[in-house]
Design goal:
307 residues; arginine metabolism; alpha/beta; Arginase, Chain A; 11 helices; metal-binding; manganese; 16% strand
C-alpha cells in the first residue's frame, strides 16, 4: 500500500516583505503537483487551503511585523500538520511565506519527540532565517522561523509546540545559504548551526556537501525538508520575493533532492516563498514541482534497491 501525501495549503504572505506568496499554493496546484506525486506512486489527498487572517500590511511593532497574524497562521499550520501525521500521512505544506515553518517544523518535532524518533531538518534556502527582533533590519517574520524554532523569539511562536524549543541546532542542516544579515551571522556562529553556504558548495560540490549533511543520519530518522524556492538561483526561479544571485543550478538542486530521496526517510515537506506575482508564466512553480518530484523518487534511471 503506497504512502499517502496530504497537501495542506497555507495561502498567506503575512510574514514576507512583498505581497504575492499567498498565491503560491494555487500556483503549485496549477503546475501539476498532485499529478507529479501520483506519477511517483503516491496517493495524494488535497486538504484544501487553511483560512487565516488577512495581511494588514502594517509597519513593525517592537521588532515584529504582523506578529499576531503570524501566530494565528502558524497555529493553524501546526494543527493541520499534527492531524495529518496522526493519520499516518506525509504532510506537504504549500506556502505561503517561510514564517509558516514555525508551525510546520514545530508539529513535526513534537510528533517525533512523542514517537521517540530522531529528527533531521534540511533547510534549503538562500537565507538562514535566524533573525530576531533585535537583529532584524525589517521586522519581517519570514526571516525568523529558525530562530523561533531554536527558542529565540516571541512566546507565541517559541512555545507553539510545548515549553521546550522545537529544534536543537544539531538537528538542523542548512543548504544553499548566501544572504545573511551582519548581526544574524554572529548569532548563527554562536549557536553553532550546521550551515553549508554557497562557497562550500562551490568548493566541494553538491554531492560532497550532501554526503556531509546526511552523515550520521540515524536509521529511524524522520527527515523534514523545508524548501524555500529562493534556494535556487533566480535564473531558474525568478518568482520569489527575495531573489539572491549565485544559488544552486537546476541540476545541483536536483542532485540535492535526489540524495534526500535516496535516504528513504523523508516524512514531511514545506514548499514556501513561491510568489506568482513575480513569476513568468508560472515557470518557477513548474521548476518547484520538478524538484519535489525528484524529492519523492524521480530519477533518470530506476535505481536498484540498496542491500
Amino acid at each position: 500500500m503506497s504512502m499517502e501525501i496530504a497537501l495542506v495549503g497555507a495561502p498567506t504572505d503575512i510574514g514576507a516583505g512583498a505581497r504575492g506568496a499567498s498565491m503560491g499554493p494555487q500556483a503549485l496546484r496549477v503546475a501539476g503537483l498532485a499529478a507529479a506525486l501520483e506519477r511517483q506512486g503516491y496517493r495524494v489527498l488535497d486538504t484544501g487551503d487553511l483560512a487565516g487572517p488577512g495581511n494588514p500590511w502594517q509597519p513593525p511593532v517592537h521588532g515584529y511585523r504582523h506578529l499576531e497574524q503570524v501566530q494565528s497562521w502558524n497555529a493553524l499550520v501546526f494543527q493541520a500538520v499534527t492531524a495529518q501525521l496522526r493519520e499516518g500521512r506525509l504532510p506537504l505544506v504549500l506556502g505561503g511565506d517561510h514564517s509558516l515553518g514555525v508551525g510546520s517544523v514545530g508539529a513535526v518535532a513534537r510528533h517525533c519527540r512523542r514517537a521517540g524518533r530522531p529528527l533531521r531538518v534540511f533547510w534549503l534556502d538562500a537565507h538562514t532565517d535566524f533573525n530576531t527582533a533585535w537583529l532584524t533590519p525589517s521586522g519581517n517574520l519570514h526571516g525568523m522561523p529558525v530562530a523561533c524554532l531554536c527558542g529565540f523569539g516571541p512566546a507565541g511562536l517559541v512555545d507553539l509546540g510545548g515549553s521546550e524549543p522545537a529544534l536543537r541546532p544539531e538537528e538542523l542542516r542548512m543548504i544553499g545559504i548566501r544572504s545573511v544579515d551582519a548581526g544574524e551571522r554572529e548569532f548563527v556562529h554562536e549557536q553553532r548551526l550546521d550551515v553549508y553556504d554557497m562557497r562550500t558548495i562551490d568548493e566541494r560540490g553538491m554531492r560532497a556537501v550532501m554526503e556531509a549533511a546526511l552523515g550520521g543520519l540515524p536509521a529511524d530518522a524522520h527527515v523534514h525538508v523545508s524548501f524555500d524556492v529562493d534556494f535556487l538561483d533566480p535564473d531558474y526561479a525568478p518568482g520569489v520575493g527575495t531573489t539572491v544571485r549565485g544559488g544552486p543550478t537546476w541540476r545541483e538542486a536536483q542532485l540535492c533532492m535526489e540524495m534526500l530521496a535516496d535516504t528513504g526517510r523523508v516524512g514531511s515537506v514545506d514548499i514556501v516563498e513561491l510568489n506568482p506575482a513575480l513569476d513568468v508564466r508560472n515557470g518557477t512553480a513548474l521548476v518547484a514541482v520538478e524538484l519535489v518530484e525528484s524529492l519523492f523518487g524521480k530519477s533518470t534511471l530506476v535505481r536498484r534497491p540498496r542491500g
